[in-house]
Amino acid sequence: MTAEPLLFRPLKVRGLTLPNRVVVSPMCMYSAHHGLANDFHLVHLGQYALGSTGLIFAEATAVCPEGRISPEDLGLWEDRQITPLGRITDFVHAQGGRIGVQLAHAGRKASTYAPWRGRGAVPDERGGWAVLGPDDQPYHEQLRTPTPMTADDLAAVPVAFARAARRAEIAGFDAVEIHAAHGYLLHQFLSPLSNSRTDEYGGPFENRVRLLLEVTRAVREAWPYHKPLFVRLSATDWAEGGWDLDQTALLAEWLSREGVDVLDISSGGLTPAQQIPVGPGYQAPMAARVKAATPDLAVMTVGMIDTPERAEGLLQNGDADLIALGRPLLGDPHWAQAAAQALGAALELPAPYARGARTT
User: Fold this and answer.
1) Nearest in space to 143 (alpha carbons), one of 113, 165, 166
2) Global confidence as pTM
3) Do residues 103 and 164 touch, judged by C-beta distance below 8 A?
4) Distance separating alpha carbons of residues 294 and 250, to the nearest angstrom
5) 28, 70, 137, 182: which could join 269 in a potential S-S bond, CB 3.0 to 4.6 Å?
6) Is 276 helix (H, G, I), strand (E, B) or coil?
7) What keyword terms does UniProt attach to this protein (predicted)?
8) Which member of 184, 225, 282, 353 is catalytic?
């Protein structure tokens, strides 16, 4: 172990300096009303600032009403959603933290129940809605059959992402991430398994990546130059004939030319037929491949990184530049502080917590 753990070295991305490399992965909480953040989100996200996490990402936040995963998703499709989110960013900044937001459109996986409220599609009488997709293939027989997107539908997507990015700036976020993973709309266009179109948005690689590139350009133009832009990708569908790591590595090179700063590498979520060999740090080799393809970009890895030693090892190996955590931080919002102690790193704590820090 080095004297100065990489996990707790600062990282500068454009004009944003992160105090450490621990990142709260975007995690859907399904607790909003009409897309509006509330006290739950303030407490949920605020706890990570008190826990000295380097960067906090708010959950998948819909850029339009039909882009919600569930009726309870956060949103940034209208101006009244700015102020409640601004209350959260103000609190995080007051604790010395940094916070980003993931912008998303669920496509054919929209209008579904929150996990603890039911299974399958939400019917119209319970607040459900018609869904859109690249074609008319549903994700699952229990979900809605999507309406294939028209030229007008497609043109509206980059506009919606750009407008949401502008609202994110007004709300005070330090970073935005475009969600192009886990089987949601932009991933649906990337994968041959979910995109059977025969127009300029389907077929060969350059057509299937077109919508994501258009969204990226629109967001980069709308988002301040000095603030970083992340893109989350599923590196593979884990299914024969689907999106794979070779295509991800090539797309990463294309995204690097579009003003993207960080690639957030995850996997899966596109098809129920996926076969995922889950294990500790199982997605890190994919992040390492993307990092090798795009040495000018920072790369974030995620997935079963359960100990400080494992996180530090991935950084020391050069597999990634940032470590995103989900379940470990749900279980312990002060994970970063415990990790610093375990690795022998100095970590500045929020003043009200500093006097309770152990010195031995």
Assistant:
1) 113
2) 0.97
3) yes
4) 9
5) 182
6) coil
7) Flavoprotein, FMN, NADP, Oxidoreductase
8) 184
Q: Indicate the SS3 state at residue 308.
A: helix
The amino acid present at 166, given as its one-letter code, is R
164: its two tokens: 């949401």
CA–CA distance, 214 with 221 (Å, rounded to integer)? 11
The structural domains of the chain, ordered by start, are 6-353 (3.20.20.70)
CB 177, CB 125: distance < 8 Å = no
DSSP of 14-74, one letter per residue? TTEEESSSEEE--------BTTB--HHHHHHHHHHHHTT-SEEEEEEEESSGGG-SSTT-E
For residues 124 and 136, what is the distance between their CA atoms, to the nearest angstrom?
Answer: 19
Residue whose entry in the numeric block shows the structure tokens 């992965």: 25
Structure tokens of 149?
A: 């997107």
pLDDT above 70 (res 183): yes
Using 50, 70 and 90 to split pLDDT, how confident is the model at 137? very high
Is 282 catalytic? The answer is no
- Rounded to whole angstroms, the maximal C-alpha distance in the chain is 65
The answer to whether 233 touches 272, Cβ cutoff 8 Å, is no
Contact (CB, 8 A) for 203 and 129: no
Query: Could you read off the pLDDT of 8-23 as tens digits, one per residue?
Result: 999 999 999 999 999 9
Q: How far apart are CA 266 and CA 283, in angstroms?
A: 6
Quote the pLDDT of residue 1: 43
